[in-house]
Each structure stands twice: as structure tokens, then as C-alpha cells.
Amino acid sequence: MSEQDRGPRRPAGGRPRTEAGERRRRLLVVVLGGIAAAAVAIAGIVVAVARHDGDGALESSYDGPLAPTAREQYGAVAMGRPGVTTPVLDLYEDFQCPACRALERRIGGTLKQLAAEGRARVVYRPFQLFQQEPLMSNSRRAANAAACFPVGAWVRYHDKLYGEQPPEGDVGFRNQDLIDWGARLGATGPEFADCVNRSQQIDQVEKASAQAGRAGVDATPFLALNGRRVDDDVLGSPDELRKAVAAAGGGEHRAPGRARATGVATGRHQARP
């Protein structure tokens, strides 16, 4: 990671900005308030925000078949071949987070390929990260829509949301857009539109945010392999991710590890007290 990638950029509103070549990153400090439904507080999350091109498309190095998907608790979606239970890759993400979008561009295709080849079980865990407006409402609408979308084609909708991620500071992920994107991917019935317009899954979004806190998610993007947060090299390289998964081993009867998370991945910063 170059020094250009690490350079901070301040938001609009009279504060100074700096440009560093073609790539930029801004540092945001985000504090998640208490989640009343689960009585869990996430004290703070600091997110490094990566470049956003706003081109409506998400580049991917993988265009092969996708493993089957299944809905799990709190809107999570598991992707994997039947019988594959380990190793498990848990990805905590926010569709409004540009650093998460950058991660998807770097290794999203590798995650899909690992699942399709039966080398890992991948669990996407969208949740609401931001508290400031308009980021918070953008995040909530996108996460609610993802929880509403039919699970069979969910990964394509997941990628579409990142491809349409609004620029920082803009109101985006409007309900009608979320519905239109879903219709293009097959969700043409009234159930999906009603679910989006009425925020029918927002309770699941809030519970997912609480669950992220219980899992020790203190920065995003957050990728765990068998319960342990991966290090910088794994987050930054498809090859290193493949090596880590291979080293973790397979086996349908092996329980996921519960080792304490260590390390800070590229594009993330530890929460401050």
C-alpha cells in the first residue's frame, strides 16, 4: 500500500482537501450508538474510506459460477457448496462504506471463487455502520433492501449496491432506485418493493449491527477466517487470501475457530476509546 493510499482527505464544508495522484482515502470516525433492540452498544468504529469512482459498475476478476446461497440470522447470507462447513470466511460490511467497496474490488471475486470451488464457506454480514447523515440513512436503506432481496440472486444485488454506491456526503440508495435495481435482477414482484418502501427488514439491520459489536467488529472492512480477523496481507491480496484459506484446512466436521482477533487490515483503523 503506497503512501498515496494512506493520505487523509477531509470532507467538504470549508475544511481543506488534498489530492494524491489518482487514488485517495479519507479518514472518518464513526460512532455507532447503542442498539436498543439488543441492548448492545458499539462504542466506536473508525473507517478508512477508499476511492469511489461512482461509475455504477463493480469490477470483478471472477465471472464463473456462484455457489448456492442461503439466508441466515439478521440478514446474513451464506454462500457455499453443499456439505462445505469450514473454513468459514465472515465478511462484515456496510454498502455505504467506500473502503468496503474497495475490498470487494480487490478480493470479492476471490471470495466467490473459493465458495464456488468448495474451498470455503463465505458469509456476508451487512450491517449499519454510519451514524452521521446522510450516510446513516443511506446505509440503512441499502441494508434493508439487501435483507428484502430474494436470496437466490442475492450476490448479484450485493455487487450492484456497491457499484451504485453514492459519493460521500450525497443522499443515495433511494428506495425507488433500490427497487429498480432489484427488478433488473429478477425481483419484479410487489413483495420486494413493499419491503423496501416500508423498511420491513430494518429490525434485522439493527440486530445485525448489534451482532457485529458482539463479534468484536471494531473496524471495517472486517474479514474473519474461522473466527479470527485476517491480517493486512490477506485483505490486500487474492493470492494471500487463497493461501490463508488453504492453511486453515477443510473438513466438514471441523468447528470454526474462536481465536481472539488480532491485527489491523489494510484500509482500516482501530477504534479509539
Automatic annotation (TrEMBL):
Residues covered by the Thioredoxin-like fold domain: 87-245
Pfam families (alphabetical): Thioredoxin_4
Annotated coiled-coil segments of the chain: none
CDD domains named in the record: DsbA_family
InterPro entries from the UniProt entry: Thioredoxin-like_fold, Thioredoxin-like_sf
Molecular-function GO term, any one: oxidoreductase activity
Residue segments, region Disordered: 1-20, 247-273
Keyword terms: Disulfide bond, Membrane, Oxidoreductase, Redox-active center, Signal, Transmembrane, Transmembrane helix
Segments crossing the lipid bilayer: 27-50
Family: Belongs to the thioredoxin family. DsbA subfamily.
Official protein name in the record: Thioredoxin domain-containing protein
Organism encoding this protein: Actinomadura chibensis
